[in-house]
Structures are given as C-alpha cells and as structure tokens.
Fold:
Amino acid sequence: MNFISLIHAKRDGGRLTDDEIQWLIAEYSADRIPDYQMASMLMAVFLIGLDPDELTAWTDAMLRSGDVLDFSHVAAPKIDKHSTGGVGDKVSIPLVPIVASCGIAVPMISGRGLGHTGGTLDKLEAIPGFRTALDPPEFSKILERYGMVMAGQSETLVPADRRLYALRDASGTVPSIPLISSSIMSKKLAEGLDGLVLDVKVGSGAFMKDLVQARQLAKIMVGIGSSHGTTVTALITNMSQPLGREVGNASEIRESIDVLHGRGPPDLVELTFRLGAEMLVLGGVAQDLAAGRAQMETVIASGEAFEKFKEVVAAQDGDTSVLDDPRLLPRARNQHIITAERSGVVIEANALDIGVGVARLGAGRETKDDVIDPAVGTTVTARVGSEIEAGAVLATLRYNDDANLADAIRLTEGAFVIGDGPAETPPLVYEEVR
Structure:
C-alpha cells in the first residue's frame, strides 16, 4: 500500500477499506510513517469524516495497536469515566477517589491537554513528584490495592492513540467526531471495563458546539461500547462557561481538594455527584442515583475519599504534603485583575476565550513539545446570570511570564458580556444517552 494514495483517496471523499485502515495505523505506530504525513491524513478525516464501517475499523486498529489490559483478578466492578474535555473540567480528580471509596474499581487512563482544554495528567503532575507513567504491572498492582489508579497510556497500551492524541493537538484536528470517539473508546475498551460513563461536553468551551453534534458523538460512543460488549452511559453537559472557578493546573488541584473536603463551587460539586452516581449504579453498588449520591456524601463527610486520594498520590510518588496544605502547590508570581466596566447582569462568560487565554499564559500547549507551567491560570469570579456592579472582579489572571499576557487579557476581557436583562442560567446536564 502507498500512504500518499490513501491520503488522496480520503481527501477526495473516498472510503478506506478495513485493511487499509489497519495498515496505516500499524505503519504509523511502527514509526514507518512520519508525523507530517499522518497529520495530512488526520486533516482529511477531519474534513471528510469516516463512515460507520470506517470508524469501527479505525477504532479496532487503534485498539489492536498494543496491549489490552486484564483486571479479572480485581473483584470489584471496573467502571471508568471519561470527559470529552472542557475548560476548568477537573471532575475526574475528586470523582475517582470518591467512587473508589464506595466500592468501584476505577482504572482511569487519562490524557493531556488538547487545544484550549486542560488535561487530567497535566493537572495531576502539578503535584510534585506525581508519576503518571506506569507500566501495566504497576498500574494493575495499584488498582488491586487501592481500587483506583490515575495514569497515562503506557508505551504498549493503544500506542497509536498516544501518538495521534498529541498530533491532533498540534495539527488543528481535535474537534472531529470520528477522531474523538475512536480516541476515547480505543483507550477505554483496552482497559477491560465492565462499564463506562461519558461526560460529553457541549458549548463554546467544548469541541462539540451544539447539541446535535454532542448527541451524535454520544450515540456513536455508546454504540461502539455496545458492539464490544461494554455498557456505556453518556451525559451531555454544559460547557458554555468554565466549570468551577479555577482554570489552570495547580489551581484545579486545589479546587479538587476542596470538593473532597465537602466544599467547592456548586456546579463542580453537582456534576461530580451526578457522574459518580451513574458509575455506582452502572457498577451495581447503588440501586439508583439517589442512593449513589448518598454513598458519595458519606465517604466525603467521613474523610475516606480524601484519604483514598492521598494513598494513591503516595503510591504514585506524589508529595502528599501539598494535599494537606494546598498553599504549597505551585503559585504564579504575578496577577492581573479584570473588572466590570459597567453594572448589570453577566450574560456570557465564554469558556473558549477564557480557556485560550489560560493556554496563552502557559497552562496549555501550542506544540506537542511545549512545557506546561503548572502555576499559571485564571480564577473566574463572575458567573452567567449573576448581578454585578461596575468595578466588580470578573476574573483574576495569574502568570509568571508576561510575553503573552496582553493576548490573555484581551481574550479574557472579551469573554464577558454584561447586559441589562436577566440571563438564563444554562442547565448543567442537558440529556442522557444510554
């Protein structure tokens, strides 16, 4: 086969065969196809798409590019959660220890930031010493002992996706339904799960900008799970404004710790409970969502969930002193406060603009080799629907390097729209797809 001819075929609207897809994924995984050619193929897929048969073949080829994990020795039900990505979306960090404390085993394999969205691994690595690179035996050992593990893909687990994930970020091909769904589901199916809960974001700060797109993505991933014998539930949730107050890496760890202590912003807390209750019901340890929520509230109030988080952070070589005293987490040297120019009601707090602004401060990557600054970020004070006075704080930017500060200020200032009339607070969860 010839890779250039396959690029031409897909670019011109053609259909790739199962064998062709298997070949191109295998060749790229083996380093026999350079990044620049695969980036061209990703752009062709981004523009043309993949039909259902192509998508199945693409997902299977990625799944078969490496090892499939076996956690049959872990007695607890294996349920994972995955988000399609959003601004300030740190839900996984408090959610996993809470759910694990309730009797679910969570073998969570997470990713790094894509475009304007933060990555769970980048946030966890704001904890000094925390290792996200675990080989399969160590991953399995931590899961068996603690009922949870939070790590990145090993060299041998879906290696095709590990490489494509970074290349999509650097080639402008992130918001593609087939590429998103195959990336997520290939990793999750390789975990040997009993069930999966998906958080499909929709809105300005999500890759899916409208409900039609989000619903399509959710249905596709639920269908992929079903075809592989894995029960998948998807919630379509709002990402028109940042989730919680903090957008960054270390700052989102601090906010996650708040949730584990029974505090935290209402929207972040509520979504954590909602997704966690779905996981407990799917795993059979709670009869319904209300019972699941009650169990979660119990392990938070007792401190069990926080202690579980500390145990796993220690097991992955993280410095647990920063969990007991979050002030020890990295902090930026400088700050810039953005205030309201007029009184009124916050009509919009555009998540995309805020997220891009934070990435410009150094919390995200513009190339796959960029180094993340864990200390920088933005605290979002103003929420959609809130009444504010002129001069009130809308957001606070925290930065170390002022090279891109002007861009970050411009983006963040432009994210807020203040009007006269009432603003309807968007729902946190739009729909369920099962």
Remarks:
- The first helix runs from residue 3 to 11.
